Amino acid sequence: MEPTPAAVPDLDLQLAPASLAWVLEQLDREGVVPVLEQPSPDGWTSQRTTGAALQQIVARAADAWIVQRPRCVGLVTRVLLCDGDGAPFASLAAARGPSQPEPTAWRVVLLVALLDGRDRQPQAQAAK
User: Which of 9, 10, 24, 55 is the most buried (most CB within 10 A)?
Assistant: First the structure.
């Protein structure tokens, strides 16, 4: 497993934590399964996570960064989730097979969230 990188403010892009719920909603619509990476005693571990469990973890983020790093399959994009002290506590990546590029829909959803810049809410909550 690749190590989860730290955010570099001059290189990486800050994403409004309020946009994360919208990102999860859009990924679900596009059929993109996020992989949650979290620290463990043996380093970072990853698991496919969806639904309420993922939403609870993402809701803890005080800060979020879009981090892209080159790998042998091309650029790999992650969303690094940080706590109130700026320490990373989790990251999200798109599920992909070995030697496979990440899904284009993953990058598109993150780009729209970044460029839109508005605080978004899932449509179910916005309708209330």
Answer: 24
